[in-house]
Amino acid sequence: MKRSQNSFRTRRAPEEPTRLPTKQEVTALTADPVQNMCVEMLQRGLHRSFSELFSLLQAARTRRKAAAFTTAAAPLLEEQRDKLETLKLRLIRAEEAGRAGSWSDSCQQRLLLAQYFSSPEDLWLRLHFYHSCADSEQGAASAPAMEAQAFLAEFYLQTDDVEKAKQRAELSLKREDEGMLGLNSQTLMPRFSRVLTEANMRLAEAADDHDTALKLLQESCRTARKIKDESLEGRANLHMGRLYLSKDEHDSAKQLFDSAKEHFLSAQDAGGLAEFYRTMAKFSESKGNTDEVIEFLEKSAEICESSHQHSELADVSMTLCEVYYRKGRYDRAREVALKCFEVSCKAGLTAMLLKAQTMVGISSAQLLIEKHVSGGMSSSPAALDRLLKREKTKACGELNSEPAE
């Protein structure tokens, strides 16, 4: 009995045969991720996805080589596993949706890829997928494609490629009968209309002849009016008024300026009102009315300051300073130049800051000369030179003091 128990204790359960990995599993472990993805796509017959992925990887290598000579090279696309996986997933889904005839879903996958590549170094990828979504022949009227068109129109406007921006906007507005609906079933007509209006205004500024510019601005007014955008219509009227002013048609210009003001007031557009008063200053200057010029510039500066438009405030202040200086009001010129200097410091406007420094210096010098001469003191070059050096030291001390908060 004892022997039987010992035998039972030493007996082992039969071992399972060792399972060897398949050839495919070994390849998956040893091959690089890009090779695995390409093989998978080809095995599934997804030749379009494979071709696009391969092309993008080649483009990434080319860009890396070019960038190596100018900037610190970013990692290769194939070295970024998360991006590779996302690319593979979305490209496959896009191709499969297209094969099933679901072009809206196919465009949606491309739109998601465009939105995924949001970092600055991936802008080229972002644009690639926005273009492939917007320019899809079969899904051109789908919501994702229209969203992509809106992005591209706005992007080209922001990067000053005005002709391309206008083309995108016009192409999309021709589909008005199809609804122009984007994601969440929201109409994209206002976005395209704003791009078209802005593009026409910029093209009008660059136009060589009056008639072309006028035609573009009239189109801008109509487009802005159609979407009931008061600010945009005000800006279009302001641009058209300037065009008439350049041709000395003062009555027509004044009517358009007044119309622009009404639109800006209705929209409570502080930026538009500030621009309106600056334009009115130019209008008064053309009539030789310096007092009105100062009045309008002061109003523009006041609006800019209250609405925290620092760059515009610095610009208006410098213009006002120069007007005061030409008029011989050196005390006000110096005061406004100091204000311009303070604003430029806060906003980091280096070029304007240096200009303000110069105006503070020369205004202070003129004040000192006036005081010196009116006091009956010596006006010899040597005496004036000593006086100017003393005032320069004083002015530098004021500029270097901490600006008031």
TrEMBL record:
SUPFAM superfamilies linked to this entry: TPR-like
Localization (cell): Cytoplasm
Main location: cytoplasm
Keywords (A to Z) from UniProt: Cytoplasm, Repeat, TPR repeat
Chain spans, region Disordered: 1-23
Gene3D superfamilies in the cross-refs: Tetratricopeptide repeat domain
BP term (GO), one: cilium movement
GO annotation, cellular component aspect: cilium; cytoplasm
Function: Axonemal protein which is implicated in axonemal and/or peri-axonemal structure assembly and regulates flagellum assembly and beating and therefore sperm motility.
PANTHER family: TETRATRICOPEPTIDE REPEAT PROTEIN 29
Name this polypeptide is given: Tetratricopeptide repeat protein 29
Organism (species): Oryzias melastigma
